[in-house]
Design a protein that fits this description.
Strand order of the largest sheet: 2-1-5-3-4
Number of helices: 2
Largest sheet: 5 strands, mixed
Order of helices and strands: EEHEEHE
Helix content: 25-40%
Distance between the termini: 58 Å
Radius of gyration: 14 Å
Shape: globular
Length: 108
Amino acid sequence: EAEADSMVTVGVINGDSGREQSTFELKYQADMAPHDFLALLDRSCRKHVGQPLADLQWLSQLQPDERFVQRSCDLRMVADVLDRHNSASSSSSARVLLLSTLPSRSPS
């Protein structure tokens, strides 16, 4: 049986304030290639955040209770989000992707 489409909730944290700046949902199709998902995410970030995905950081957690580590948004990020969901026992568990804007550099 083919896996149904599912939603990925994307939260974007402001790198300066640490507050949530934007939240939006993306529909992830089971047969979607990872690079197509990245392209969809990039378009959505431009629309909802006003910045391309390349200007954002992925907030990654190796373990649920560890602190977040900033990483670049790439195919490894897509695999992590989808693998975490696929390994979850409950089909109702949502896919969540946390991103952060880069802190603005103070003028020198």
